[in-house]
Amino acid sequence: MRLPASNSLFLRLSPSSFGTPAVCRLTGSALLLWFVTACKTSAPVVTSAPEAAPKPVVLSIGSNKAFSSDEFFDSFTKNQLSADSSQRTDIRSYLDLYTNLKLKVLAAEQSGRDTTEAFREEMATYRKQLAQTYLTDKTLVEQLATEAYQRMQQEVRASHILIPVAEEAIPADTLAAYQLALATRKRLQDGEPFATVAKQVSKDPTVSRNGGDLGYFSVFQTIYPFENAAYQLPVGSLSAPVRTRFGYHLIQVNDRRPSRGKVQVAHILVRLSPSAEPAGVAAAKARIDEVYAKLKAGELFETLARTYSDDAQSKNAGGKLPPFATGQNVPALEEAAFDLTTPGSYSPPIRTNYGWHVLKLIERKPIETFAELAPALRQKVATDSRSEAIRQTMLQRFSRDYNVKENEAVKQAVLAKADSSLIQGRWRMPVNPDPSTLLTVSGAGGFSLNVPASKFFTYVQQKQLPRTETGLTGQGIIQRMYSRFVGDQLFAAEEANLEKKYPEFRALLAEVRDGVLLSQMMEEKVWERSLSDSTGQKQYFEQNKSKYTYPARAVATIIEANDDKLLAETKVRLATSPYALKRSAPDLLFEANQTALSPARRDALFEVLVTMVKNPAYVLDVTASRDANEKDSTSAGRLRSVVTYLTSNGVQLARINEKDLQGARSNGDAARRVSFTYLTTSKQDVARVLSGTVTDAVTITEGIFAKGQNAYVDELPWQTGSKSFAKGNKVVQVTISRIDQPRPRTFAEARGAVINDYQAYLEQRFLADLRQKYPVQVNEEELKRLLK
């Protein structure tokens, strides 16, 4: 459960969060799309050049496919720059790879794969993705992300007065709102108290209880024009009227402080309605006081949360809430959370509009670095209210490249269709919309985009929303929608014209096209068959059995420890199985003659259940006892209650060792209990427990090793036995339990390698058939020129 801050419904934004066989197979055309976009090293540049003479051809395939030296060399250069230096190839070897790719693409084209509806849809999707780079101002996005990060370092406390006026309001209403804002500002400058004036003038729905004080907030928590003013004003100063889509604001900055970062807490909520009767208020207070008293008496917060909390979303997680920053939660809870300084500490009961809470601090987190937050910040600035600034920058650029010519008569006829139904969001387009051209967008090189009136009608019907502001008219709304529509057509024109305008985009799209076709052909001819053709796999295995043999191998266990003491302790723990962890859970205590699980015992036992579920290799010793005054069967009853609870919640009986001590423990409370000890069947669990908080203080490696696969095993004589030695800052014990002599692998053992090899075999056959069908010719003279 996240408790949203609600200082201002129209200003505050919702809080958002800123963390088989080894088959050699591509992941498809999505991988190529990533590759070609990753290869992009500079912003697009508009180019225009006179028609050039035919370029020299370096490669011809079949009768009608020729590739110029330039396009081949560009591909070679790009892939060399993007590849790992250890995997780079020379130009002649790359020509073979390039030829093979073009052969597969040609085969796809000849089979008509580039004409299918599925192919066109896939290409349209990739084109849309590639186009986004050209339809946004990356420099401005980066500037806004940097600005946002800088603002995250501070929290601002501000008050405001809202004088609402819609963006589509008639000029007279807009002017009246502005004049009222100026008159109100004059009252404040003359010394009238801000809260008093705000309650008289402001239409912010929260003003009656906060006098216009929004509390502390940070970046992204108000709309961008408001945020700009708040961060630019000195403390104590008053802004001029600030226009947003909600109207005019007068903003007074009251304080600034360094960011407090994020905090994560758990809470126990006793829900209380704001309209509760006195008896309900008293009952809620008594219940939260009971919780607080139990906490002070030493009971676990998580257990109490599961028992008492009314927050259904968090109670089963011990009350844990998502991390939050200033302005993302209700103020009272927020302040109490940030007042906690020590992880594990908890607050006294606090009251919010949700009810009563007790909080436990989990951790405090400082603001992450810009490098960590940059991807989320870039996405955020491109989608929040800053996106309008980015849009306007792009429209200014497009307006220089394209000319918009409106058909004035059609425009006026279209705008005249607006009526008051637009205000309710119920406007319907004409039954037979005008097919005439509403506007034309034209650009260089003969580019032209005709936009019919019917497209605008569709746009209005889809984009309209019910409006509640006063002073709106259908004409005002449709005029603003038309202005927005024209801007959208400029974006559409730019997107449609990308291939002509940017050669680089055209080349990227061509590479993606080839990648999609290549992926389809490889899927059909190689990948799918290599996986599904079990008969072919076995035939290939039988014909190449000598390739699939195991060399001599040692079955070994290697223990690395930071010192001799840890190594000795590890050896002791591993001496018997299951392995001792020396880890236990708190005992369950019972009243005399009681065997049933009370709610409190179930809560305590839940922790044991969680531990067993999280650690599937754990084995649990469950030991039950009684005192001398109880019946012999009492300890067995306690044991059965505990085991039944665990097995009914998913713990296998085979993982539980039951021990009934009868009356072996001393008399009294200490004898009436069930105790728990954890063991494990996993050596890795032993290593983790012994390492504690020191990473890799103990590591245990088990495996079957051939020569050259493990340096420690290689140092020993090739025979069974154990040896301990120092290596660097570690002490090591290597135990070789068996030596396996060389032998052939079975098909099942070799299947992964067989599939890889069979895939390569199928691809070679496929390429051989293609080279026979489509003869390949290389212009050696041109290739030699490229080699220089």
TrEMBL record:
Gene3D superfamilies: 3.10.50.40
Keywords for this protein: Isomerase, Rotamase
Pfam families in UniProt: Rotamase, Rotamase_3
Domain PpiC intervals: 153-255, 260-363
SUPFAM superfamilies in the record: FKBP-like (SSF54534)
Gene Ontology MF annotations: isomerase activity
InterPro entries cross-referenced by the UniProt entry: PPIase_dom_sf (IPR046357), PPIase_PpiC (IPR000297), PPIase_PpiC_CS (IPR023058), PrsA_foldase (IPR050245)
TM region positions: none
Annotated protein name in UniProt: Peptidylprolyl isomerase
